[in-house]
Amino acid sequence: MKYTTALCIIGIRVIGSCGYVVQGWPSYLVEAGWTADGKIVGITEPRRVAATSLASRVADERNCILGADVGYAIRFDDCTDETTKIKYLTEGILLREMMGDPLLTSYSVIILDEVHERTMLTDIIMGLLKKILRKRKSLRLIVSSATVDAEELRDFFNTNSASRNRDEDTATILSVEGRLYPIDIYYSAEPVADYVQAVVETALKINDSEAPGDILVFLTGMEEVDRAVSLLNEHAKVVKEGKMKLMPLPMYGSLPNNEQLKVFWRTPNDSRKIVVATNIAETSITIPNIVYVIDCGFVKLPWFDIETHTNSLIVAPVSKASADQRAGRAGRVRSGKAYRLYTEEAYNDLIASTPPEMQRADLAPAVLQLKALGIDNVVRFNFPSSPPSKSLLSAVELLYALGAIDNDGELTDPVGMTMAEIPLDPVFAKCLIASGEMGCSNEITTILAMLQVQNVFVRPTSGQAAIKARVAHRMFEVEEGDLMTLLNVYTAYEKYKTNSWCQKYFINSKAIKRATEIRTQMRKLIKKLKIPLSSCLGNVELLLKCITAGLFPYAAYLHYSGVYKTVRGGKDLHIHPNSCLYTLEQPQWVLFGEVVQTNKTYMRELTVIRPEWLVELAPHFYQRTAIDQTMVEDRNCIGCRVDCEGHIGTVKYVGTVGNTKGQWLGIDWDDPSRGKHNGTYEGLKYFETWHPTSGSFIRPGKANFGISCPEAIKVRYGYIDDELAGIDRDSIASVQKSINAPFVEMVNKKQSKFDQLKIVCMQAQCISSAGYPGELAALCSIIEELDLSHNLINSWKVVAEICTELQILQQLNVSDNHLPVENGMEIYAHAFPVLRHLTMGRMKYNWPEVMQCLKAFPSIQELIVSYNNIETISGVEESLNIMKLTELSLEHNLISNWNEVLKLGLLPCLKGLNLNSNKIEDIRFPTTEPTDKTHLFPNLTQLHISNNNIRDWQSISELEKLHRLQDLKFRENPVLKEQNVQTGIQLVIARISALQYFNGTEIIPSERRGAEYDYLKLFSSEWRSSEQDILKRKEFITNHPRFPALVEKYGVPDTSESTKSTQLSSNVITVEFVCPDDPNIKSIKKKLLKNMDVQKLMGIVQRLFRINGKIPTLSFVRPNVSEDEIPLDKPLQELSYYLIDEGDLILVRW
């Protein structure tokens, strides 16, 4: 902490290993004097419940009143005072504090917790703190996370980019290892139809058959949680005598704080607590005494649709990381069990981790906050994960339409400034501001407060109660929509304010009380912001227009097909069954507050409007623009590569089709599932296809013919640290036309310092041409690495035209492009004078085509041709360019015969060869004697040959014939499956003398000695039996060419019959314990079992030498073999793992 500004605390191996960082460390920091000058230690949490529960717990541990020495701050609830030293707060609160105190001068240390969740606010705060740390050297930052990539995070905060001296780093890593009890994981035999019902049934079975211990259930949202709790409560009433009583408790973010705290209460001895939670219980909180976990396998994620400007809540499968986090909750107090309501195959198909929220959420709130903090060029802001350029542009467009920013991209005063002060979504903040101008802030604050809570209505799932609830709710429903219905509910509640009234009308009393608290805080806020509090006195139209002033981006109209479509983007939507409009005549125009994706895409929180209000209140947003009609000519289109909705294909035909009007493009798609036929329509063949179903016809207007390389670079890149910060060109044109905002182009030009770009990734940017001669050289001529993979380039000529202007280009990737190989490729050699690294993956090339391409690369040294159609190798000696290769990757090709690989042995400079995922069956080198070295591959040091079909150990022995082989990767070959993992590794190491790395792991000397010694013992009897038989000895040496050298090194192990019978008849060995650091302590001889583990041995040593609980450090020596010490450093391994034998010395230190 004294020497670095940023400390990354990474919890390894198990979930929750960083929990003590946010509980114990703040107290240590206080005691260490970090708050002596009145400063505060601040700890951010992504959720309110985590902030409040941690603050309460730390206050108890410090024996102080919550809100004094230890406090918390969440939205609409600040429990701190001027004496607070430790402050737990949500990320949003810290962001708002930065507005008034940009350098966070009231804090000495900031701890960011749960960074692995990668919320949008987390990424923004990390970017801002990086800037703050540069200006305020006294501030210290601690980043706490369970799973995030430590090196990536360290490098993000490290400002020592110029020097390689790690002592000058400003950020470092501290790993905290957690402990977890064993967890048994159970999968469903088949998918469940209703996972909520399955959760209830599983919980009941656990209660009937398992030992005491609480249950934690994971569901996707509040509605599912409440439904499950309701069902469990019904079963709790009829629990059989002798079984534990059930205590079902809900847990989700919008639950009132006092209700959330119930899950932390101690469970009575005769009861079992069942906590039904959303993913809030995954990492943010730790509930005590959880032994069983039930995982539904799904999670509700916010997802932003750029085209329609809609925020959707989609129910999606969890990631593997989330599933493991959930399961880990079962092993915190003792051995636990996790029940996954999905199959093991489904688990294996899950994605590794959930995408960061920054890459899938609406960025308008983030951009607004950054603007308020003085970040003018948001696209050049240093985000840990670069957001999609289209999302960034969409946010800018929305804020402009809301009046938050002006034509120059600056925050407007007072609208933009005021919106940034309001802790609500920008669209709701605009409603609040407009309410002051329209004279209806009294009603709007009520509506917005009601929208901040969930489940205002209690909806029983069945029986008479469900009917009564529906009738009661209709008392408040109006045809103007759900928001006006919520206003009616609150207005009626204000007259009574009793629980009995809420019960009578099936209203959630807890939710409406929370809404009252929020409304009170909101009214204090608008008073501070000088927004007048006034009532519209029942003017409904005025209220609806005020709502439209903010929610206009979320407009939908009733399509003639019977579904609703968004005005922007035309997305199909349906009215949610819980909406008051569901049973009424469908209105023509509505605004929605939320989109939920289940079996259909539903709109919630609806408001009925008139279409003219959209044009009146948001003319820039809904101004229609003409679409240019592009004419295509046969000679320009045939052979072109086009993109259509993310699918790429080649134009094979242009013209009319059948009796239809207008022109069509006949496309041969790369993905045959995108096509429909083989180029034939109504019996007439229009074009040839590579696959029977890869052809189809599309209108020219749907085809994207791509852009030039310089233009693609302009729209993708900014100038700060070569980071992605561009804006999509088509989106810029769209916004300029629709909102008449010239600032977009101006801001983009400000960020266009492209002449500093050296590493450029243009993957999947729809590049189809090189641009004008000299254009790219003028823009960014010092590019050294260029990725052009997965674009619309259709010839090597275009590639050459691009690279001609990049004369110092050293690395090029053209993978996933359709580049036919031409005769005379050497004519392009001038374009690649110093290019040394070339990647041509997924090009459908064979080896002769690869060789033809290499004629264009006179300086080539490293070549990657993975995922191609290479079966045979030829013509190696005929090419001068290939003779310079030092690295060659032929991964994922079709090579099956090792003799084809031997043809590459003529390459004199080749150091690395990747043959992973081919079909190679054996390895043989042409040598006279088994122990001879081969003349092939004279400089090969690295060989990757995993995922092949190698079945014999002689193939491994053959690799000993290579002169310099040091690094071998040899996973997933059949020969390894004949042995257990450890034995297989030892056999490989022993057979190859120069090997230093195997499967990415360094081979330490003791490991090599052990492997070689075991190898000798394993085959010593076979060696002895061949002493008198020359043919048998020759066959043995052919299979084990290194054995004679090992015999000379170690001698032949004693395998006499007496020794064998002793070893077979007994698992007992006698060893001598010696304390080498204290000669006054006498040695002790003792008999041990070979299958005893090191941890038990440590306990024996503690008792023998009476070392009062100190943990000894153990190693051993084989007096008859070597004087080298071998550490016993794996507590759970048996002594037999280390090959400890009779008479060995155990060295004890402490």
TrEMBL record:
Domain Helicase C-terminal: 194-374
Enzymatic reactions: ATP + H2O = ADP + phosphate + H(+)
Record has Nucleotide-binding as a keyword: yes
CDD domains according to UniProt: SF2_C_RHA, Ubl_TBCE
Pfam family for this entry, one: CAP_GLY
Entry EC no(s): 3.6.4.13
Enzyme class: hydrolase
Localisation: Cytoplasm
SUPFAM superfamilies found in the cross-reference section: Cap-Gly domain, L domain-like, P-loop containing nucleoside triphosphate hydrolases, Ubiquitin-like
UniProt xrefs under SMART domains: CAP_GLY (SM01052), HA2 (SM00847), HELICc (SM00490)
GO cellular component, one term: cytoplasm
Span of domain Helicase ATP-binding: 1-166
Family indicated by similarity: Belongs to the DEAD box helicase family. DEAH subfamily.
Protein name, UniProt field: Tubulin-specific chaperone E
Organism: Trichomalopsis sarcophagae
